[in-house]
Every structure is written in structure tokens, then in C-alpha cells.
Write a structure and sequence with these properties.
Layout: H1 32-41, E1 46-50, H2 57-66, E2 74-78, H3 86-99, H4 119-130, E3 136-141, H5 149-162, E4 166-172, H6 180-185, E5 189-192, H7 194-197, H8 201-210, H9 217-227, H10 231-243, H11 247-253, H12 260-270, H13 275-283, H14 292-299, H15 304-313, E6 318-320, E7 327-329, H16 331-344, H17 349-362, H18 366-375, H19 379-388, H20 401-409, H21 418-430, H22 434-442, H23 452-465, H24 512-518, H25 523-527, H26 530-546, H27 550-563, H28 570-587, H29 590-606, H30 617-628, H31 632-643, H32 651-667, H33 671-677, H34 688-707, H35 711-719, H36 726-738, H37 742-750, H38 760-776, H39 780-794, H40 801-804, H41 808-816, H42 821-828, H43 860-870, H44 875-882, H45 886-900, H46 905-914
Parallel strand pairs: 1-4, 1-5, 2-3, 3-4
Antiparallel strand pairs: 6-7
Helix pairs in contact: 1-2, 4-5, 8-9, 9-11, 10-11, 10-12, 12-16, 14-15, 14-17, 17-18, 18-19, 18-20, 19-21, 20-21, 21-22, 21-23, 22-23, 23-24, 23-26, 26-27, 26-28, 27-28, 28-29, 28-30, 29-30, 30-31, 30-32, 31-32, 32-33, 32-34, 34-35, 34-36, 35-36, 36-37, 36-38, 37-38, 38-39, 43-44, 43-45, 43-46, ...
Length: about 900
Amino acid sequence: MAEDAQLHPSGDPLLAAKFAVPAVPPAFVARQRLLDRLTEGAQGPLTVITGPAGAGKTSLAASWREADLAPGPVVWLTVESDDNAPGVFWAYVLGAFRYHRVPLPDGVGSPSSADNVDHSLIVRLASALAQLPEPVVLVLDGLEHAGVHGIAAELDFVLAHAGPSLRLVLIGRVDPALPLHRYRAEARVCEIRRSELAFTPQEAAQLLRCHGLTPSQESVGALTDRTQGWAAGLRLCALAMQRTDDAEHFAQSFAASQNAVADYLTAEVLAAQPAATQDLLIRTSILSHVHPGLADALTGRDDGERILGRLVRDNAFVEPIGDTSWYRCHPLFSEVLRAHLRSRSPALGAPLHREAARWLDGHDRLTDAIEHAAAADDWPYAAGLLVDRLAAGRLLTGPDSHRLERVFRSMPDGLPGAAPALAAAACAMARGDATAGRKHLAGARPNGDATAECLLTRAVLRLLTDADTGPGPGTTAPTAPASASGGDRGGDDCGPATEAPVPSRGTPDPDREVRALMERVDRERLDRHPEIEALRLYGRGRALLAAGHRPEAREAFAAALAAATDEQTWTVRYHSLGALALAEAVDGLLREAEAHALDGIKAAEEHGIPVDRRTPRCHLALASVSADRGDLTSAARHLATARSHPPARDVPAAAEAAVLRSRLELAHGHAAAALSALDDVPVAADGPAGAEVAGRIAVARCSVHLGRGDPAAALAALGEAPPGGPALAVASAAAHLAAGDGARARRLLAGLTGGEPVAPAVRVRAELLDARLTAFEGDTGKAASLVAGAVRTARPHGLRAPFTEAGPWLRHLLARVPGLADAGAWLTGRSAGAGKRPVRGSGSGDTATGSPLFVEQLSPRERDVLRCAAQMMSTDEIAAELFLSVNTVKTHLKSVYRKLSVSRRSEAVRRARDAGML
């Protein structure tokens, strides 16, 4: 019945055993009165079955389902103590519906965080259930384990809005946190409580007869009185009576106490076993699952398989796990056994955990082994397993990452040796704290006889922690480029003066040490850890990106994606998609960036990556794509989503977020806010990563200053930047041109040829700047040709922003040169002839001549002002209408004139109407 594995919010698979309807135990008594009550209750929305442990709650519901008395399909979920987080609980509820073949539309979604659930998911679930063709019964067994009040409120909401399509059966030891008083007042709840669950003397007699016993009426009465009809007590008593010579006396003398389960299990189950069986049960109580071989390792004997098989046959609270060789004890029995271990042999726990760790390690159950080593408080051994088995990468990615992080989060600080320091570093990096990771790595100094696995682990972690600070030791440093923005800073330049070509920078080799060490590790072991190669490539990409080598970084991220196909590499794949998408977006490869960003967001949902572990880079890439396409509304929306995933300690991502925010503020005419947005990024240009971030911020500042007509400030902003590549050179050329130094701008642009590859976004801006210079020099034909070339470069990528940000000169050129009609049509989204309108009067306007319109987007407030102006309102009247000052209205009008490339109000209104803005 199981479908494909569904995912827990942590990324772990959901445990299908929780969806299985428990088997009705042998010698079960079907009590018709309770089956009828449950059938009656299922006609309404809510049935609550409460009682103590062992009262027969689960068996009742399971037998009712087996008897096919439900009004529709039954969906079963056994709720356990680790399901008490809202996201985990609802992930299992959705998984239960899928497991039991109750169709829910894909649009319902799934929780992305363990700690909370978006209310819209609850709404979608209720809506989907309300549309089911027949009622469905959802049985939640053990709901007391999901005691968070928010879960109860969400459950109440679903029940209320799913209508008659949902019938809820809640099983637990205590009342659910639902408003039962309201359900009672509305006669919409059926409650089956302890008193009803208790066996009557007649039912108790039937139970004993099912166990092959023929007790007297007096014995049944005494037993029923003393157990108060408690189902588990009666069953335990029946099992014991089968083994006694005087069943009548046993039944008459049976007495329950406050610790009846523990007392009875001890006296009648544990004590009834041979000494060797008792020893095995107590020693294996430290395990959640036991294998005969593991049992032998803990007892020092070879009788594990025989004893476990006999316990299963004797129904002695041990059961096999599916078709495997593993077994498990009943949880209550396990608790009793662990209590005996603590009381009888308190010093035995740690050695048993340590021995279990050794056996599990030898049988490819590494995470279990590490957990037992930690339970033994043997942290050097636990950390040694992590490092020497090359599993530190699994702290960062894969289904066991959260289990391992929970283990090592409890490890004390300051333990000697390289392995604990490496484990602590990996744990810090799993939390996104590269600074703490570097600190721990500084203390991880392998000695001369360190294994290749230890050295490789250290090299991989160092590559990842240094990824945003540039290449560290063991790398080939990039050749220092001649600055495109530095050089002679004397005289009255206020900024860059370099006129030499921008050279190609030598590519660093940040992962050279990792590759060399991978050659020293056993190939079979390395093949079992595909996350190492994926992490290497991802770290290489981050380091190259930090050093400003975007094309090579993109290649590394693409290679990481190709390597990240195993479940152990889910997280690496997700982060590689985000990093690749953002790098492509910044370079102007918009279609590729959009595809990879959407794939990354999908991967996060599919693999249940928690929200607090998600990167903002996917949404930053989408924001950048939207901005470059001229869709500022979508850009703002994606940027807001990106900022909801804080780029904790991810300075490059924070820088991109600041640059995007600045661009959007500038596009809306808010220059001061645009500059302020760039002040939020802590820029420290003390390495390749800092230089790259500082360069990005400097170019953004330059754009703001140029937008506000202050070329001197633009040059000053660039003068503070470290040496950079083509983007800085183009920004410098634009600033010099705005300052009136066209010759220097020309030389800077000429320096781009023959140097390192230029990304489409930078190349388009360079071509437009060249066109502007050419037009300024009077060669309109050549300028038009250059603009057409820029369009050819931009069009395959959908790059419109460089044109909207180019200024009025481009709009005038498009209007004057008929040969640019096709270019203008693409930029405005019209066909080449769409700009033609019937000519009025003399037909002197741009529209009358059929020239394509090309206008920059207006902010919402600028549109409001323009609408008022179109109604022939004066400046004072507009100010009063919009509750603005007169000066503010004038400022908005000036911005409108600039964006529409007009000088009068009437022209602005006409141009806006022609562009469809009014």
C-alpha cells in the first residue's frame, strides 16, 4: 500500500510504520457494545477514545476497522513523542492520507519547517477534504504525544471546515486540547472513556477462555475487580495463568498496584525467563532495535538468534521488524528492562553503548554507532567515527544530518585531538556559522600520523569555511590584475584613472589540496560518500565566485549539480542551485538563472529543507531576473521573500540583497533610500571575497550617484573600491563620461577587449555606453548600430534593465532613427508598428511619426501625480489631493519628466497615454 517515500520537514523519510493499522492481537475479544458505539460515533465529526495505557483503545479501533464498519476509508496514523512539532505532525497526517490511498491534490503542499505550519496549508487541506466524494475516517492514535496547543487548534480548524467529509477518531490517554465543551453542547462528539473500555466480568471470562483457560465465576469476578477491567492487566494475567499450576489460586490472589505494569512484567515476564534470556533482554534494552548478532556482541555469547526467536513465538513482548533480521521490544517492556539495568548494573551502561557502537560501525550503521558512542560519553570515539569514516560531510547534507547535528551539539568544548575539533567545525557549519567553523578548524591540528580521512575532512571543511573569504593555503593565488578602477588617483580626478586594458586574471585552484587528498583515500570508501565530491565542487564554486571568477564558478556549481544525485547530497544540490542561479542572474543569464532558481525552490520543498536552513540565493536570483526584465513589482516580491530567509553570515548574499534593494529604490526615485540600502552590508575588503563584495557595492553606489546627477560622488565611490574587473571598468567609464571626460571613458571601454570574458549584463552596458559616446561625438549612424548590437546581445537573455537605466539619450536616439524600430519594439514589448496612432494636428510628436515609445517605469506615487496632472489640476491642487507638500509634487513631476524624456506637463501626459500608463 505504501507510496513513494514522503519527507519529514528535516529531510528524513517519513516512517511508514506509523501509518500501518495495528494488527488485532491473538486471543482478542471483539466487544460488540464498543464496536456499536464507535460506529455510532463515526456518523458525526468527532469520536474521542481515552483511557490509561493498556486499556484496549488501539485494539478497539483496529478491530472496528478490520470489521469494515466505518462509513468510508480509514486513514490511520500512530502519533509518537517525536511528532509534537506542528510541521512534523502535519507532514505525517498528509503522509497518512497518501499511504492509505485517499487522494489529495498536489496543491495541498507539505510543511517546510518542523516548528510551524503555514496556515494556508491547513486551509488547503480542509478544502481538499471537503471536496472528497465520500467521508474519510482519520484515526490519530496517541494524540497526547502531539500536545502542542497550536496543533489542536489547527486540527479543530480542519475538522470545522472539512464538513461531513471528515470523521475524526482521536485515541489517547488524556483528552485532546480541542474545545470539547463546544462539541458536547452541539451534540457533535462521541466519547468512549475508561469506564466503557473496562472489561465486564462476562468479557473477562471470554478473554480467559480465548487463552485456553476455564476459570470459575468466582475467579473471574475477583480478577475483574482487582484489575478494574484493565485490558492489559487481564491479558497479562491470562498469560501468567497459562504457566501456573494453580490458575484458580493465581486469579484469586492477583493484586494490582500503582506500578502494576512494571511489577507484573518484572515478576511474570522477565523473571519467568531463563537467566541467559534475562541477561540478553537487560543488556539489549539500550537499543531501539536489536539484531541477533548485536545481541551476541553485548552478551558475549552466541545464543541471540535462538532466544529472540523464542521470545517472538512466546508473545513475550518482542516482535520482528518486517521481513528483516531485526527485532524490537514493546516500549513498556523496554522501559522496565532499562530500569533494571540502571538498578542492577549502573556501571554497565557506558560499556554496552560503546560495544554497540563498535558492532554497528562494523555493520554499516554509522549514524547509530555514533549515537551510541555519544551515549557512552566517549566523545573522542564518536568524533573519531565521524572523521575516520569520512562522514563529516553527512553533518552538512543528507537524511542523517539533523540526527548527527543533535549528537554533536551536545559534545563538550575543548576536547583534545583533531577529531572532536573537526566534528565541532562541521556541526557549526551545519548551523550556517562559518566563523565558528573556522575557529574550531584552527584547533584541529592533525599530528604526523593523521589518517588520510582526517586530513581530507579538514581540507573539505576548510574549503567550505573559506569559500567566502577567498582561497587559503594550498591554493594558487590569482594574478593581481591591473586595476580597472584604481591607478593614478592624483590630480582632480576624484576617482579611477587607469586606461590600460583589463587583463585576464589567473584562475585560483582552491580545491587542489582536497583533490590531492582524495587520491590518498581508499576508493571504495570514497565511493560510499558521494557528498565529498559534491561538497568539493560546491566549495570550489563559492571560492571562485568570491575571487571574482564568475564563469569558472558557474562551471563548478554546474559540476556540483551533476555530482549531487544521491540522497546524501540533497542539501548540496539545493545550495548549488541557489549559488548558480544567483551567479547567472548577476551576469545577465536570465533564462538559466530563472530555471535554476525555480529548481532550487522546488528541491527545498521536495526534500523538506527547514526554512531556517534555506538560502536566500534562489529568491535573490529571481528578484534580479525580474529587475533586469523591467518587472519591478515581481522583483520587490522576490526580494521580500529572500529577506525572509536571512543570509546568516552569508555576506555575498547579503551584498546582492542590498544591491537589489538599492536598484529598486533608485527605480522609484528614492536616491537617499538607495544609498542607505547599501550601508547595511559589512564590507571588509581584506581578501578576494571582501574585494568582490566591495566592488559590487561600489558599482551600485556609482549607479545611485549617477542617477541623481552627481558624477563626482560616483567617481569617489569607485575610488574607494579595490581593483576589480569589467563591471567596475564600465561603471568607471560611465562616471567619467557623466563628468565630461569622454576620452577617458573611451579608453576604459577599449580596455575591455582582449581581457577576461565579459558577462552579458556588463557587455550590454558597455555597448550602450559606447553608443552614447559615439552619439555624443555626432555619429548617429554608428551609435544606432551599436545600440542594435546591444539589443542583439541582450535579447536572448531578456535583458531590458540596461536600456531603461541608460537615460534620455537612448530614448531620443530610438525616436530619431527609423532603423531602430525593431529594437524599440522589443524593449517596449510591442510589435514594430504598434506605436503608430492617428495623427492629430501637425503630428509633430513621437507617436505621430510612428516612432517606438520607450519609457522607464514610474513609481506608484509618480503615477498618482501624473493622473492628477492629466486632469488639469495645478501643483497646489495635486498637493492637496494627495496630501503631499508642493515641493514633493514638484520633485515627482521632475522625475516623471526625466523618465518620459519630456520637458513639459502636456508632453508627459501625452507620452504616458501613448505608453498605456494612463
